[in-house]
Amino acid sequence: MHKRFKSWQNHRAAPLFLLLLVATALVGCGVVAVHHVPEVGPISSNKIPDLHGSQPLDIKNGQPDAGEIEIGAVGVGKVVGNLQQWTAAMVSAVKVQLSQRGATIVAAAPKSLSLRITKAEIHGIPIVGGATSTIILTATTADGLTADFEGSSYSLAPLSSINGTATDAVKKLLEDPTIDTYLRR
């Protein structure tokens, strides 16, 4: 038998060490921090209302938490973000979408929609790879109506998963019949 093979056999702990090393890399230990702000992608839907002729409205960032938090670990890294910045990205996307559909966005309008992210997380998928993420976007009207919209997504690229999740949450908010009724009156 070859000398190298014999020496490998004599070190029975070596395969166990190698297995632990690979498992740590797959599960993730959060060594590298990546700061990310979601990019909401284009939204096309025939369920989003036409708001030509509706009353002016204000879309506000209602996220009180301005600190950076850990969203989750993927691979050997962790994703961190500032929920106020994340909400600002979603507020911007909602304003663009509603403006494209005829809404007049005016700061301090009596009709308003306040948005905030109440949950954001990402999880790596061991062995298979990629990541799943979840965002819960909470919308509150000036009348006190509150609704949660959960976006979720999977992607082989973790940050793309977050972007897809943000897009999904915004789309669900814009397609919601209760929000539609509020925006039209």
Features:
alpha/beta; Rossmann fold; 7 strands; about 30% strand
Write the layout of secondary structure elements.
Blueprint: H1 3-10, H2 13-27, E1 32-35, E2 57-61, E3 68-74, E4 77-82, H3 83-100, E5 111-124, E6 131-141, E7 146-155, H4 158-175, H5 177-184
Parallel strand pairs: 1-4, 2-5
Antiparallel strand pairs: 3-4, 5-6, 6-7
Helix pairs in contact: 3-4
Descriptive overview:
With 185 residues, this protein is an alpha/beta fold. The chain has 2 domains: 1-27; 31-184, Rossmann fold. 36% of the residues lie in helices and 31% in strands. The chain has helices at residues 3-10, 13-27, 83-100, 158-175, 177-184, and strands spanning 32-35, 57-61, 68-74, 77-82, 111-124, 131-141, 146-155. The protein has a 4-stranded mixed beta sheet. Strands 1-4-3 form a 3-stranded mixed beta sheet. Strand 6 and strand 7 form a beta hairpin. Helix 3 (83-100) crosses helix 4 (158-175). The radius of gyration is 22 Å and the shape is elongated.
